[in-house]
Amino acid sequence: MREAVIVDAVRTPLGRGKPGGALAEVHPVDLHAAVLRALIERTGLDPAAVDDVVSGAVGQIGEQSMNTARWAVLAAGFPESVPAVTVDRQCGSSQQAVHFAAQGVLSGAYDIAIASGVESMSRVPIGSQAAGADFLGASVAARYPDGLVPQGISAELIAARRGLSRERLDEFAVRSHQRAATAWVSGRFAGEVVAVDGVDLAVDQSVRPDTSAEVLAGLKPAFWADAWERRFPEIGWRVTAGNSSPVNDGAAAVLIVEAATARRLGLRPRARLHSFAVVGDDPLLMLMGIVPARRKVLARAGLTLGDIDAFEVNEAFASVVLAWLDETGADPAKVNVNGGATAIGHPLGASGARLLTTLLSVLEQTGGRYGLQTMCEAGGLANATIIERLDD
């Protein structure tokens, strides 16, 4: 029976978006190439052996257009014979890339694949691919006559309908920054982060070790507008820039190999890609697909919540992770133990591979066996992945 194993996983440090972003002047193709090249350098693999590079990117326009993964492969110095494809499942794009790459290995279509992701939100602003476009069409508009909402309003609705106070959101955000800062100081990110040529950035630029609940309490709601106030009077306007993920630039990549091939090549498998799930959910409360995604992936794996030793739940908004915690009853001490996207950052198309990279590190640092990753995605979608750490 074929198995898909993770041989290595890397990410760049995440830069803040403009202004002042350390990675803002790096073309996304070069940013992406940095992690592809690092995988080859760290493992000694012949890049010509890679059957495919499956990559995620959300803003597939401008400098991230025209199948950006292909150009990153060439920029990394891989042979021209190595193919690449860019996928879009919104914020879960590179998590979906991991699923596609692993499924290709399991099916026998690939023996060696790389799953990766990139997003330069400084150079390709969020939403620019849809600016001025009617991307819903008449039929979807007719199905949802009251209209859909932006993700920030969805995060507000979740907070309001789940009774999540502003204080609880801010406390969660502070904890994320504290955990990330501690992880950096203690060296827990050292094995997963690789440098970007020509850039002086050694840590995730959005982490604020000195932030506090008092500081965050002074921030204004990020998504208030009179039209939303009239439509949703129940919203208490709790979501701010402080308890949401920032705008970031970054890339991440995962080397996925068929187990017998890894042994033949002398590559050490670090974890097995155990189970996958993807779900569709309410496109209005679009961020809560992570709840059914968790149920589905656990059922497929034949595991319970108690079997999972570490969770990575993307912190697009604090309200989303807190609602997930309340719904699932998961132990908060096992969730985003090295901090999450509120502090580390959320470069959209790179985040799925970044979370997996960090999850693998956490399992190795704690001796845990099973890790579960899940991520909310625009349109009411969510991916979930379970990996199993392998002993040396």
From TrEMBL:
Record domain Thiolase N-terminal: where: 5-259
InterPro entries documented for this protein: Thiolase (IPR002155), Thiolase-like (IPR016039), Thiolase_C (IPR020617), Thiolase_N (IPR020616)
Origin: domain of life: Bacteria
SUPFAM superfamilies named in the record: Thiolase-like
Active site per UniProt: 91 (acyl-thioester intermediate), 346 (proton acceptor), 376 (proton acceptor)
CDD domains: thiolase
Keywords: Acyltransferase, Transferase
Similarity field: Belongs to the thiolase-like superfamily. Thiolase family.
Keyword match Acyltransferase: yes
This enzyme's EC code(s): 2.3.1.16
Enzyme class: transferase
Protein known as: Acetyl-CoA acyltransferase
Any GO MF annotation of the entry: acetyl-CoA C-acyltransferase activity
Listed transmembrane segments: none
Matching PANTHER family: ACETYL-COA C-ACYLTRANSFERASE, BLR7806 PROTEIN
Residue ranges occupied by any Thiolase C-terminal domain in the UniProt entry: 268-389
